[in-house]
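Researcher: Good morning. I'm working through a list of sequences from a screen, and I'd like to move beyond sequence-only analysis. For each chain I'm collecting a predicted structure so we can compare shapes side by side. This is the next one on the list. No need for commentary yet; just the structure.
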Amino acid sequence: VQLVESGGGSVQPGGSLRLSCVASGYTSSSYCMAWFRQAPGKEREGVVGIYTRGLIAYLSDSAKGRFTISRDNAKNTVYLQMNSLKPEDTAVYYCVREAYGGSWLGMFGYWGQGTQVTVS
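Model: Good morning. Structure tokens for this chain:
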């Protein structure tokens, strides 16, 4: 199993970024996925999650109205569209996969290496 994130970078407040996560090594359409983030000096937190068929499984208060998760199972890719970015969104963003197929359990067995997002 491999999860590779891309799309991070530096952006001014109010700007947008789209993160991508390409999955390989398994049937990606069979697993719920999520994005987590970890800001400097803070604990890792869940941002948003998605079911296998594209419905939203979880949305943090910080993401509501600004972030959108989607997936293209044909491309084995999950996206995180982030709009109206704020300095407090600065963090390393991780793509994660549920440990078990089919269900949203909140048990994430696989993590990507992370991509840095800096808003300033």
